[in-house]
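To: structure subgroup
Subject: Chain for Friday's discussion

All,

I'm putting the inputs and outputs inline so they're searchable in the archive.
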Amino acid sequence: MYGIVNKAIEDLVIANFGEEKWEAIKQRSGIDIDFFISSEPYDDDVTFKLAVAVSEEMNMTVGDVLIAFGEWWVIKTTSEKYTGLMQSGGNNLKEFLLNLPNFHNRVMLIYPKLTPPEFKVSDVTENSIQLHYFSKRQGLQEFVRGLIQGLGKMYDTPVTIELMQTRNEGSTHEIFKISW
């Protein structure tokens, strides 16, 4: 993952718990990196070690950490650093979700070494959509849940998210039913 992801985890921890807590998390993780360069790729293991360290240090599940991070990613990181990109996604939650399959094509212009997930949509109704999530990375479905919740907050649209299918139970990908 790119350094911007790890930097966002750092920002989330510092903003909510302070610099000392971040230093404790870094130490617990065993990561010996003084600072993350946003535009540089890092091994995925670095990000997962940070997530586990946050969960241990904060007495949270890794899933809860990933959900919180997903919300932070949308509300703070991308909305503040990539305002134009986020605004190009749509005028409301439904438009953004419908445009999501093409979203990472624009992101890859900024981060050419990105290995993005793939999203597809199905079963679109007036108040719901099914979002299909395909990724080479395992264990990030709760991050995606946090992203969706963050998008709901960004568009001031309360969402309900139901995990319809998961790779944890033998499926080829995750399907989230998102209702608003």
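Points worth raising on Friday:
Helices lie at 3-17, 19-29, 44-58, 62-81, 83-87, 93-110, 141-154.
The mean pLDDT is 92.

D.
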